[in-house]
Each structure stands twice: as C-alpha cells, then as structure tokens.
Design a protein that fits this description.
Strand content: under 5%
Largest sheet: none
Radius of gyration: 27 Å
Keywords: Membrane, Transmembrane, Transmembrane helix
Organism: Halopelagius longus
Structural class: mainly alpha
Order of helices and strands: HHHHHHHHHHH
Protein name: DUF4239 domain-containing protein
InterPro entries: DUF7972 (IPR058278)
Distance between the termini: 54 Å
Number of strands: 0
Shape: elongated
C-alpha cells in the first residue's frame, strides 16, 4: 500500500504528463463543485453569490497573465548576453566537455542529455572498478574492506542509474528522472573521508583512484545541475505559453458568469448545476496548469539542490553511514593514542 501511494505521489509530482495532471486537478474541482452543489452545501442558484465569487476571479486571472509576462522576462534574462559573454559560455562548455571526456577516457561526449549523463555515470562506474582493483592488494584488512565497501556502493548505484538512463526516452526531464536520487554528494564526502583517514595506509594507486573518483563525481554534479537549469528554463517557457492558452478562455468564462441575468438562464436542476460547475472549472484551469508544472519544477529543484559535497536533505541511511565512519575514525584515533 505504501509503495502504491509513493508511486502515485511520484507520478503526480514528477513522472506524469503535465497535461494529464492538470486535467485530473480540474476533474477533481468539477466533481467537488458538483457534489457540494448537489448536497446543498454550496448554492449555485443565487446570482449575487455567483457574482461575488466571480468578482474575486477577475483580478486573480489578470494577475496570472502578469505572471506570464514575468516568466518570459525571467527566461529571456538568462539568454540575453553580449557577444563576449556568449563566447565565454561556449568556451566554458567546451572546457567542461573536454574534462568529462578526459575523465571517461573517450570522445566525443554525447550531445543529448540522456546520453551525456549516461556517459558521465559510466565514467563513475569505471573509476569505482579501478578503485576496487587497486584496493585488493592493500595489506591492512580494515582499509581494504572500507575502500571495497565504498567502491561496491558506488558501483551498485551507478549501475542502477545507468540502466534507468538507457531505458529513458530522449528529453531533459527523462534524463533527470533516473539521477534525481543519485547520492553524488555522499559519495564525494565518503571518498574525501577515505582519502583523509587512510592517507598513510593507502597505496599511491588507491589515492590516485580516489582523487579521480572525486573529480568525476564533481563533473557529474555539474552536469546534473546544468541540465536542471536548462530544463527549468524550458519548462517555464512552456508554462507561460500554456497559461496564455487557458488564461484568456478562463477570463472570458468569468465575464460570462458575471453577466448572467440569473443562473437559471443556463437551465434548471441538474443541467444548471453541471453547466455552472463546468464554467467555474474552466475558470480554475490557469491555477491547475500552474500547479501541475510547479509540482515538477519544485520537486526537481528540491531533489537536486545539493551542490558537490554540500547537501540539504539528510537521509537516515546516509546518516547511519556517517555515524559508522565517525565511529571507525574514533576507534582508530583511540588506538593510535594508546600506542
């Protein structure tokens, strides 16, 4: 039951088609109005009541149209730049892609988001395999076990992400979905901890492998953050256009509701209840579209808000991992002091 609920929430917030989510929100609004009107909880027959509600809709819908202008200005502000700034951006991208290709040991890197992220994840997987191989000759069993456990965790997570990316369709959001929960920040923290804690015990090859792992994980963090930013720009541009599509008809419907002589003009009984509920539902449509898109934008931003080794959403499993790491460090420090 919990898994089914979680899948429904995930589909509503992130995975589902935004048009379908908005339509479901409108269906819920329509059925709610219909049910409340049928039970007599609300009245849709009093013209004074209808006009007072409509009077609140008009400024709200005009505000929505202002939001459209604000969104377009936000998107355009990210694109407007001088030729020098554009050249610097291109050079930064070229340099970054060169670093990724160097870390992966292959070129050229893919252009599409899904392919590029899969390219970086394969590089992480390769670094984890190299780290595990270099750890096997270590003479200290505690050091060897700690490094091999870390490499195994990275391999498991990178392979899951790789499989999900291979099954994903083209598109920025489909590239982001499989790697939203990828714990690159914790992998960075643990790699740095291993390098610092076992610096004297690890071989030069293992230390180099940990350094390469850290660099590759940082490249992955940059890629995911960049695709999140470009996706957000793209979805905000789509949102502004769709708000215009539904905002103008909604405003027209609100005007019609306000100008009705009486609700009975559209019919009597169930016909009147259905028609007036449907008209109010159309008036709700800009809010439904805005909510459907912001669900996804906010969820994607919240789940990818960590930057490099900094995190904002601690998880119980990772907290336990950190506690174990601190405990091992305390044991080793105590042993050294005793000696």
């Amino acid at each position: 039951m919990a898994d089914a609920r979680r899948r429904i929430v995930e589909w509503t917030l992130i995975g589902g088609n935004r048009h379908v989510v908005a339509s479901l929100l409108l269906a819920v609004a329509f059925l709610t109005l219909l049910s409340l009107g049928h039970l007599g909880v609300v009245t849709l027959e009093d013209q004074a009541t209808v006009r007072s509600v409509v009077g609140g809709f008009v400024p709200g819908l005009i505000a929505f149209l202002s939001i459209v202008l604000g969104i377009n200005q936000l998107v355009l502000s990210q694109e407007l730049a001088s030729p020098g700034e554009i050249r610097r951006r291109i050079e930064d991208v070229r340099e970054y892609r060169h670093d990724v290709e160097e870390a992966a040991g292959a070129e050229p890197s893919p252009v599409l988001p899904t392919g590029f992220l899969a390219f970086v994840v394969r590089a992480i997987e390769s670094e984890a395999e190299t780290l595990a191989e270099n750890a096997r000759p270590e003479t200290d069993s505690e050091v060897r076990d700690a490094v091999e456990e870390y490499a195994a965790n990275v391999l498991d997570e990178s392979r899951r992400a790789q499989e999900s990316l291979e099954q994903a369709h083209l598109g920025r959001i489909n590239a982001l979905l499989p790697v939203l929960e990828y714990d690159d920040s914790y992998q960075l923290i643990e790699a740095r901890r291993l390098r610092e804690e076992y610096e004297d015990e690890l071989s030069e090859e293992s230390l180099d492998a940990l350094s390469h792992m850290i660099q590759t994980l940082e490249l992955f963090s940059v890629a995911r953050s960049q695709f999140r930013s470009t996706y957000t720009q793209r979805v905000l541009a789509h949102l502004s256009r769709r708000l215009l599509y539904v905002g103008l008809p909604a405003l027209l419907v609100v005007v019609v509701l306000g100008l009705l002589r009486t609700p009975s003009a559209v019919g009597t009984g169930w016909v009147r209840l259905v028609v007036v509920s449907a008209l109010f539902t159309v008036a709700f449509s800009p809010l439904a579209v805005l909510s459907a898109y912001l669900f996804r934008v906010a969820s994607v931003a919240e789940r990818t808000i960590s930057e490099g080794p900094f995190v904002s959403r601690p998880q119980e499993a990772r907290e336990g991992w950190n506690r174990e790491s601190r405990a091992r460090h305390a044991d080793r420090t105590g042993s050294s002091d005793g000696e």
